[in-house]
Write a structure and sequence with these properties.
heterotrimer; A alpha/beta (323); B mainly alpha (289); C alpha/beta (320); A: 323 residues; alpha/beta; eight-stranded mixed beta sheet; 12 strands; 32% helix; C: 320 residues; four-stranded antiparallel beta sheet; 11 helices; globular
């Protein structure tokens, strides 16, 4: 059952006279209870996609130009601000990257969890308080710490509180924007482990935004690779990790230092991501791609390799045609 | 040859960039143009005027604005337009000198306080004390102690304006000091002097410039008030504040004598404020919109 | 090749309101010329402080630092000035480590001006361009300002500045952790090439074990100011002996479909580095800890040839 469907979403930011094309017509489906990893480098448009789903693209300078975002078949882009406020926190919740700044420093953590609950559920103060305590316990923080302030918590603990806030109203979709990037590895392992457990217990669908293919491998069952505002490849975890087809995906895997293989030099993708205010004609990756040919100056087609695996590249089309 | 050309291009490029950003801000440009016009008028205006600013003419006393006296005349029959133009010289001179010396003194104090923690407490408590005394009271006391003339009033104004600069500079330097590029500067062997002049000051300048324009406004107003109570510029010098003061007896029947210099102050202050706001935005390279 | 840098019993304490913060507590090591020492640990383990103390960006509390056999623990002003020619640093944050009001050429040329290396303006510009070329910055960026460039290019500026005086020794403080993966690889390769060409000696400080693997000859793992394990990089990745190193390595998410790996999940978080008790600092989180660990501080001992570990039970845990 499809929970969220993004269709041909285009988001632009206008900076002075330039138009920055942050998201260029991406389509993505999230099934109920599924976890999809949105992978890409800085500036690939991951966060903008998430913000569009939340209805939080800063306007101005940002604007959703076209496309549809369907939650249970209802277009979120057509909702009023008031309606969106009801959906945010209740049906869709978001976890932001920086645990140090996403909590209000002058409210106790308990109150901050309670606030969400009281906003969306008609329950008494006592019950809300009780539920907030339960949420804290759920993310592995003793309930007694309910009355403490954010500065009394470490980074990992703060991120747990943020997750508790996000999950407080049992959202059906959770968007996590680089939830563990700011944490140390051993703490990251703890938080990832907890997120995985919670996801299994509550059957919450999740969009995990990250640049780390390692994190995706641990938590997600589907992956979408973003590059310069487009999804260049998407598929199940097996599709992407076992048989990546887009040159960018392949390059991304190769540039990760591998702990298990001895090698002197790292493989690199030459060059940089194109300026999103002046994207090249046709394939956005063609300037860095070693397989680029004349035809890459045209918009590459989306090739369906299997029921689950899609890639946006001429190369895949040629190979498929040749088979 | 090619090198020196390159250098020149680079040297101007940062200022040019700021200028370009400033040009986009219409309010700031309006403020700047107004200021330039006021400056030119007070420099060259008096030369064109047929009247002498101090010449008394009792037949033409207390005239409302008319064709021969565009802004009218005062109680001694002096042409107000001429007096405004000449007064502009004094007002602008006082403002510029006071605020510049206040900025240099204050910034230097703030910089020392932030850069050498041992001096921090002494300097900043001194600044706190200065800020604790009502500005008007302090100016009056200083002028009373030194004697009322224009020079002493300027000293008083510069002293009362500098604490604000010290505070801003100190706060700036403290945040800049914590950034990694300061460490980088010492790791490549920069001396303290070089760190201060090459790395700290350029990064701390933006709020100082804004404070400069805001401070200039309050200097204009303060010097007007001081002259108004007779503790600043002495008659018959046509300082704007003094002119308001002279006009107050006639406010009921001949309001133009006080209102016109008042308007001159308002226009100048407003122009400075707009320019200051625009400069603050233009000086931040990250605010490129 | 001789030892370029030797550090003996280095301590760095910071006074705080509730007592002395032991940022670096009795650390000793040496690096041979042309080699790289990777210093690994999580935030708060004292690795960055260590690098800064060696470069005298922070004064040391106790201990000796020998550079080329010469004691540089307490250098005079002129000695320090001379030292900085040879010892440089690349900083973690490419956004805050360069002066936003200077152009690329000015930043890279700054050390040249400070040390008055170039006699003429033409020579200076020549040298700046050469440095930009070495770190892979096209000449057209000469007059650009840092905010116009992305993280990878800014880090190249930082490296160019560090190389300007032809140093022999560079402390790299997490130089790639703020960069994207594909850019990370570019910068790491650049640093390895530079080391080869110029026989540079690196201390490479990082929290990411997978990054140091490729660049380091030796690795030193730190936890709360002390060294818990030290060995040749290859040996360390083959077999980790200290329980913390094991956990650290197993916590790295791998970009592979691995099924169930036996991850060691550490309980709890870092304990306070302020006035730590005489005990194993890792004991609170260690799955193998006993009463002995809470009473007695383990010392760094050579457990296998050239493989040092600070743990009471290293033999039992690893069945040596």
């Amino acid at each position: 059952m499809e929970l969220l469907e993004i269709k041909n979403l285009v988001v632009q930011y206008s900076v002075g006279r330039d138009v920055v094309q942050a998201v260029n017509g991406i389509s993505l489906t999230v099934k109920e209870g599924a976890t999809i990893g949105l992978v890409g480098e800085t500036g690939a448009g991951k966060t903008t996609t998430a913000l569009s789903v939340m209805g939080l693209v800063p306007n101005p300078p940002g604007k959703v130009k076209s496309g549809e975002i369907l939650l249970d078949g209802e277009d979120l882009l057509k909702k009023s601000n008031k309606e969106m406020r009801k959906i945010r926190g209740k049906d869709i919740a978001m976890i932001f990257q920086d645990p140090m700044t996403s909590l209000n420093p002058v409210m106790t953590v308990g109150e901050q969890i309670m606030e969400v609950i009281q906003l969306h559920e008609k329950i008494s103060r006592q019950d809300a308080q009780k539920k907030a305590c339960e949420m804290l316990e759920l993310v592995g923080i003793p309930g007694q710490r309910y009355g403490e302030y954010p500065h009394q918590f470490s980074g990992g603990m703060k991120q747990r509180v943020i997750i508790a806030i996000a999950l407080a109203c049992n959202p059906r979709l959770l968007i996590a924007d680089e939830p563990t990037t700011a944490l140390d590895v051993t703490i990251q392992a703890q938080v990832l482990d907890m997120m995985r457990r919670l996801k299994e217990t509550y059957k919450t669908a999740m969009i995990l935004i990250t640049h780390d293919l390692g994190v995706v491998a641990e938590v997600c069952d589907q992956v979408a690779i973003m590059y310069a505002g487009e999804i260049v490849e998407k598929g199940t975890l097996e599709d992407i990790y076992e048989s990546p087809r887009h040159p960018y995906t392949i390059g991304l895997f190769q540039s990760i230092p591998d702990l298990d293989v001895e090698s002197e030099r790292l493989n690199i993708i030459p060059g940089m991501m194109p300026d999103p205010a002046a994207l090249p004609e046709g394939c956005n990756f063609c300037e860095r791609c070693q397989h680029a040919t004349e035809q890459c100056k045209k918009q590459p087609p989306v090739v369906r390799l299997s029921d689950t695996h899609e890639v946006q590249c001429f190369l895949a089309q040629d190979e498929k045609g040749g088979e | 040859m090619a090198d020196s050309r390159n250098r020149k291009r680079k040297k101007t490029s940062q200022a040019a960039e700021i200028w370009k950003r400033l040009q986009k801000n219409r309010m700031a440009m309006a403020g700047l143009c107004t200021l330039i016009v006021i400056l030119l008028l007070s420099l060259f205006g008096p030369l064109l005027s047929p009247y002498d600013y101090a010449a008394q003419n009792f037949t033409d006393r207390l005239m409302f604005p008319c064709a021969s006296h565009l802004f009218g005349t005062d109680n001694f029959g002096r042409d107000i337009l001429t007096r405004i133009l000449v007064g502009g010289r004094y007002t602008l001179f006082i403002t510029f000198v006071c605020i510049t010396s206040a900025a240099i003194m204050g910034s230097a104090l703030g910089l020392l306080a932030a850069f050498y923690p041992k001096m921090d407490n002494i300097i900043m408590r001194l600044v706190d004390i200065l800020m604790g005394i009502p500005t008007m009271l302090m100016c009056v006391s200083i002028v009373a102690a030194l004697g009322s003339n224009m020079k002493n009033m300027m000293i008083a104004l510069a002293v009362t304006q500098s604490p604000e600069f010290a505070r801003i500079m100190r706060a700036q330097v403290l945040t800049i000091k914590d950034r990694e590029f300061m460490e980088a500067a010492s790791s490549i062997g920069c001396s303290n002097g070089r760190i201060i002049f090459r790395h700290i000051i350029p990064n701390a300048l933006a709020p100082i410039i804004v404070q400069y324009t805001l401070g200039a406004v309050s200097v204009i107003l303060m010097s007007a008030s001081l002259s108004f109570v007779g503790m600043g510029v002495q008659p018959p010098t046509p300082e704007w504040g003094l002119m308001i003061s002279a006009g107050r007896d006639y406010l009921r029947d001949y309001w133009h004598i006080a209102i016109i210099p008042g308007l001159a102050i308002v226009v100048t202050a407003f122009a400075l404020n707009m320019l200051g706001d625009g400069l603050r935005d233009a000086l931040d390279p990250r605010l490129k919109q | 090749m001789g030892k370029l840098l030797e550090v003996k019993h280095l301590k760095k304490y910071f006074p705080t309101k509730s007592g002395m913060l032991h940022a670096v507590d009795d650390v000793s090591f040496s690096i041979e010329e042309g080699k790289t020492l990777g210093v690994v640990g999580e935030s708060g383990c004292g690795k960055s402080t260590l690098g800064r103390v060696i470069l005298h960006l922070l004064p040391l509390t106790e201990g000796t630092i020998l550079y080329n056999g010469k004691d540089i623990s307490n250098p005079s002003k002129t000695e320090l000035h001379e030292l900085r020619r040879n010892m440089q640093m690349v900083f973690q944050d490419p956004y805050s480590s360069i002066n936003p009001r200077q152009s690329v050429a000015e930043i890279i040329g700054e050390p040249l001006k400070v040390y008055r290396v170039c006699k003429t303006k033409a020579e200076y510009h020549e040298r700046v361009r050469e440095l930009m070329d070495i770190v892979g910055l096209p000449e057209r960026y000469e007059h650009s300002y840092p905010h116009e460039l992305d993280g990878g290019r800014r880090q190249r500026i930082g490296i160019g500045r560090a190389l300007a005086l032809n140093p022999r020794f560079i402390v790299c403080d997490e130089p790639v952790s703020a960069l994207d993966v594909s850019i990370q690889a570019q910068i790491l390769n650049l640093m390895m090439d530079l080391q080869e060409e110029r026989n540079l000696t690196y201390i490479f400080v990082t929290h990411d074990l997978s990054v140091v693997k490729h660049i380091s000859d030796d690795i030193m793992v730190m936890y709360l100011g002390v060294v818990v394990e030290k060995s040749a990089a290859r040996a360390l990745f083959e077999k980790q002996l200290h329980p913390y190193t094991k956990a650290l390595l197993s916590a790295i998410p791998r970009a592979k479909l691995g099924g169930a790996r036996n991850r060691i999940l550490l309980k709890g978080e870092l304990t306070s580095p302020i006035e730590p008790p005489k005990a194993c600092r890792f004991a609170v989180r260690c799955p193998y800890a006993t009463d002995r660990c809470a009473q007695e501080e383990p010392t760094l001992e050579e457990v296998l040839p050239e493989h040092y570990v600070a743990c009471h039970y290293v033999k039992e845990i690893n069945r040596l």
